[in-house]
Specification:
This protein has 370 residues and is of the alpha/beta class. It has 14 helices and 9 strands. Strand 6, helix 10 and strand 7 form a beta-alpha-beta unit. Helix 3 packs across helix 14 and helix 10 crosses helix 12.
């Protein structure tokens, strides 16, 4: 019975079990059907990791699944209901849990990220408007941010969630920033960043954003807000407001959800980004109301599809160099992560926003930059 239900559901998106199209799937274990209907996306992902099913092009599979909104057809599972309850009761992104994401994800190994991310070591969406490859797209993203915040020589700059510190290095070398501070919750990222920024006016800290007290001319947060959590959105914005000079600008670069929610995909939460949560326009708006003036809102979510596919290409090409360290199950997990996300952005299920804020509104208005 469950086999029939799953096959009928997939057929709505033009996906066939045992078919020959790149987006079709092969079921190796018949228990997959029961597992998916019982555990939803968590069961689907774990079944793939367990080699119960496979497909030629996972990105195309997820593109079709999400384009046709098949995720809405699966009933709420007990696991999802439990997560909703826990999220409402507990602050899963509290100070005490702040470093969990660093330990579980970003500290998985700098060698993995060096082989996957390219020369820029940027672990967020690139800007592909005029780019021909990943490095060009990431450098273009760096420059786009600098231009949007009107970065000038002699300014001070804070990067909340600085990753490997390469954006700060670009801002110092290309725009003459005199003081740059980056905070991260990943010890391995910080070690790499410090070594890469030796001799430059850049300070890298392993620190929770809530502890920052200095003031800066400009503040950016690139690919970090997804870890803040809906209970902390307002306090995050208050910290930025406290640290930003009155005539300063703040740029928020974040993945966004088209609908407000307080939970994330169960498989992603368990295996990739524990405690992760995608904000909506409504949630961001509520968080900044009375604190900031929104000067510009730019959506280039389709570019994340290209970025993720480039990351996967690097990961696949270089896998043999790290295979002995991570193993086959990790390979399937990471492949599932990258390609499912690519399919999601391709279907415009998720968005990528860059939002520019000022404290009091810019006299004469903000000048559009693209």
């Amino acid at each position: 019975m469950n086999e029939v239900k799953v096959k009928e559901l997939l057929s709505l998106a033009g996906i066939k079990v045992g078919g020959t199209n790149p987006w079709d799937v092969i079921i190796k274990n018949p228990k997959t059907y029961d597992r998916v209907l019982r555990d939803g996306t968590l069961g689907l992902g774990e079944a793939y990791m367990d080699e119960w099913w496979t497909g030629k092009n996972l990105d195309e599979f997820f593109y079709k699944v999400l384009l046709h909104h098949l995720d809405r057809e699966v009933k709420i599972t007990p696991s999802l209901a439990l997560q909703v309850i826990k999220t409402k009761i507990f602050n899963r992104q509290s100070r005490g849990r702040a470093f969990q994401i660093g330990e579980r994800h970003y500290d998985v190994g700098n060698n993995l990220f060096e082989l996957m991310l390219g020369n820029t070591m940027a672990y967020s969406c690139g800007y592909w408007a005029n780019a021909k490859n990943l490095d060009e797209a990431q450098t273009a993203k760096f420059d786009l941010i600098c231009r949007k915040i009107g970065l000038k020589e002699g300014m001070s700059l804070l990067d909340i969630g600085c990753g490997f510190g390469t954006f700060l290095k670009y801002a110092v070398e290309k725009y003459g920033v005199k003081k740059a501070v980056g905070v991260t919750v990943s010890k391995k990222q910080a070690t790499w960043a410090k070594a890469n920024c030796v001799g430059l006016p850049i300070e890298i800290r392993v620190e929770d954003y809530r502890n920052i007290t200095e003031t800066f001319d400009r503040i950016v947060s690139v690919g970090m807000f997804e870890h803040v959590g809906y209970k902390n959105y307002r306090s995050f914005m208050s910290v930025v407001n406290r640290c930003l000079k009155d005539d300063g600008l703040f740029l928020l670069h974040t993945i966004g959800s088209s609908a407000s929610t307080i939970v994330t995909d169960l498989w992603t939460d368990k295996y990739i980004f524990p405690g992760g949560q995608l904000p909506s326009i409504k949630q961001i708006g509520k968080a900044v109301e009375g604190i900031f003036v929104m000067e510009d809102w730019h959506n280039f979510g389709a570019d994340y599809d290209k970025t993720l596919m480039a990351w996967y290409g690097n990961f696949y090409k270089n896998w043999l160099q790290i295979e002995n360290k991570y193993g086959e199950r990790f390979y399937r997990m990471w492949k599932y992560y990258l390609l499912s996300c690519a399919g999601s952005f391709r279907a415009r299920h998720n968005q990528l926003w860059q939002v520019v804020f000022s404290k009091q509104g810019m006299v004469g208005g903000w000048k559009s930059v693209r």
